[in-house]
Amino acid sequence: MMTSIADETALWSRARTGDGRAFAALFDAHRDRAFRHAIRLVASAHDAEDVVAAAFFELWRKRDLVPVVDGSVLPWLLVTTTNLARNSGRGLRRYRAAIDRLPRSSDLTDPADTATERIGREELLDAVRSLGEPDAALVLLTALEGFTSVEAAEALGLSPGAARVRLHRARKRLQGRLGTPLDLLGSTLQEGAAR
Amino acid sequence: MTTRRFDPVFSAALRNELEALADAHDPAAAPALQRFAALRRPQVWVAVVTAVVLVAATIGVLHLTSAPTEPAGRSRVVDPLTKVTDPSSPEYVARAVQTLLHISSVGPGGHDFSVPAGVTSVRVYLNCAPSGQSTVDIDGKGRMSGGCSRDSGSTYDMPIKPGTHEVEVTVGTRTDSTLLLMASPAPTVSPGALIDPLTQVRDRRDPDALVGDTTPVLRAGGSGAGGTRPVTVTPGARLRLYFVCRTTSSSADVVVAGHTVSGCMNSIAHWFDFTPTSTSTTAQVDAPAGEPWSLLVVPAPVGAKDSPANATLPYPTASGTVLAEARGSGAPASGTYRRPGNAIAFTVSCRGNGWLEIMTGDGGTNTRGTRCSALQPNTTGFSGEKDPSPQHWTVLPHGDISWTFQLTSDG
Q1: Angle value at C-alpha B398, between B397 and B399, nearest 5 degrees
Q2: Which is nearest to A179 in space by CA: A143, A127, A131?
Q3: Among A130, B126, B142, B218, which residue has the fewest nearby CB atoms (within 10 Å)?
Q4: Which of B313, B321, B291 shows the shortest CA–CA distance to B402?
Q5: What is the DSSP string of A66-111?
Q6: Are the beta carbons of A52 and B6 separated by less than 8 Å?
Q7: Best residue in B1, B16, B17, B206 to probe A by mutation, most A CBs within 10 Å?
Q8: Given an 8 Å threshold on Cβ–Cβ distance, is B7 in contact with A104?
């Protein structure tokens, strides 16, 4: 399902005032993107589903504080997904009972990762964990999700100038730690996530 | 190449949860601090009084001029996929189901769906809002018609072959509906080696699996007539007994705490709930010579009732020609009939603790989630072409119930 920016602003407005269908439509619109983002950062598809579920619960809980960037809540969702993934489950604790109550297809197997892909993901996650919360989200939004630094800054509540400085330092720290140009790593992971 | 995708069952359940979360929200309820700060302003009080007067006037006018309508929150269609995969739901089928088509839409419409090799039967669920009449027609052959509501739980099964099929849904032009077609679960009576009832009650794919405590109170096995086994229980505890054997038999029985539990099969579909009057009792098995069996006693699940003393139920008054009929308690039954070419229907009635699973050459149903009653028989109708070849029917009672089954044709 495609949701245009104009549609999404209206949807989000309706969702915030208690329109369940509108909130469900937002879930339909952004579920797969959030899932693709999460699966790069956690150990399994199962964990990625948990992170996405928690991100949407957070979206509802913090609905009065969520910044809408360029007519969309997606940047905020991706930032929240990043933070939940890098917190290794701490952020999910609030929603653990609700998530565990939801049924799953027990016969769905998580397609095996290639060793390279898994190692790449674990290295990236370790490196991202070493960054502070806003820096990690800044890097992932710009390097992997294709947002501009201005859009990422808006989603994080930073000024564009501060975001640019933070991003520059964070990229240098990551490159030093990973020994790989960040853009190359990003494209590798994007291919892996699409597989 | 494989694709990592969001689990559709988890997704449907999460979507429902989020929708309900937002629906339950009262937009008037602002955070407490903001509310109290706002109350200090006099203009807020003026606005509140004005709003109250306007709302009262509006409600009065609406009350006088409009017909009663369903509240918005209640008109939401319940997703049957969530229900069939939720063990706490009466419509629960299994944790994992094989979805063939799962679609929400507005108004009537047709959809294509594929049936993979190995699937022989499709189960149809349709919920809609507002409530009204509906039909679901598969390939112009299998047709379910009747009332439909937001959480009707109405379902039927029909045989199907692998390949591409069409389903046509007829509802009101502005009616929201959710259609679920899923592969019917595999037969619950295993044709192979003797099953382990403890493994089976813990297997969430089995429609009779237990969710609560399954710590065995007694676990025994043998062949033919067995000795007396002691059963030690906590005072007042209600227990559930499963008696499993490789070949379905009505002559095997087990006597436990003064009750005789008749019949066994290679399935946990048949069980018996009882509350021993003594903390120390016995179980004694009698089975045909050489017939392997397994006996399991576990705590009965929360909400279970003691099984009633079963008696044969009378057949309901049949309309039309009776093509086949059977009745019984506990053990399954099967037979054949020949399709006459005009509309046929089967009617089931039952009494006791459990549910019935029916399968015929023209379709099937189950009474799970609906009231299983001897007073109000449940009838499902089908149309089909004349076919002189024998069509099979099977009745599989789950739990401890007495039942009747009648297959009739018009005229």
Answers
A1: 115
A2: A127
A3: A130
A4: B313
A5: PPPBTTBSHHHHHHHHHHHHHTTTGGGGGGHHHHHHS---TT---P
A6: yes
A7: B17
A8: yes
The whole-number pLDDT of residue B62 equals 47
3-state secondary structure of A60: helix
Count the residues in chain A.
Answer: 195
Mutate to test the interface with B, among A108, A117, A121 (most CBs of B within 10 A): A108
The topology (CATH level 3) of A111-194 is Arc Repressor Mutant, subunit A (1.10.10)
By residue count, chain B amounts to 411
Per-domain boundaries in chain A? 5-101, 111-194
Nearest to B265 by CA among B193, B187, B206, B332: B332
CATH topology of domain A5-101: Rna Polymerase Sigma Factor; Chain: A (1.10.1740)
* pLDDT for B298: 94
Strands B344-360 and B378-382: antiparallel
Residue B189 near residue B206 (C-beta atoms within 8 A): no
In order, the DSSP letters of B368-380 are: TTS---SSS-EEE
In angstroms, the Cα distances linking B338 to A46, B323, B362, B363 are 49, 8, 11, 14
Predicted TM-score (pTM) above 0.90: no
Q: Does ipTM come in above 0.85?
A: no
Query: Which of B2, B3, B10, B103 is best to mutate for the A interface (most A CBs within 10 A)?
Result: B10
Q: pLDDT tens-digit profile of B194-246? A: 999 998 888 766 778 887 888 999 999 998 887 788 888 888 889 999 999 98
Most confident of A84-98, B89-103, B112-126: B112-126
Judge contact between B293 and B243, C-beta under 8 A: yes
The HSE-up count of residue B93 (CA atoms within 13 Å, CB side) is 27
Q: Does A21 touch chain B (CB under 8 A)?
A: yes
Angle at A43 between CA A84 and CA A134, to 5 degrees: 30
* Cα Rg of chain A, angstroms: 17
HEC states along B26-41?
A: CCCCCCHHHHHHHHCC
The residues, any chain, with a CB within 8 Å of residue B350's CB and separated by 6 or more, are B313, B356, B367, B372, B373, B374, B397, B401, B402, B403, B404
Q: Do B4 and A110 touch (CB under 8 A)?
A: yes
Residue A43 is encoded by which pair of tokens? 């150990």
B33 pLDDT band, cuts 50/70/90, is very low
Is A32 in CB contact (< 8 Å) with chain B?
yes
Residue pointed to by tokens 């027609």: B137
Residues of chain B in contact with residue A108, where contact means CB-CB under 8 angstroms, are 7, 96
Q: Which of residues 89-148 of A touch B (CB under 8 A)?
A: 98, 102-108, 110-111
Are the folds of A5-101 and A111-194 the same? no
**pLDDT tens column, A162-181:** 888 888 888 888 777 776 55
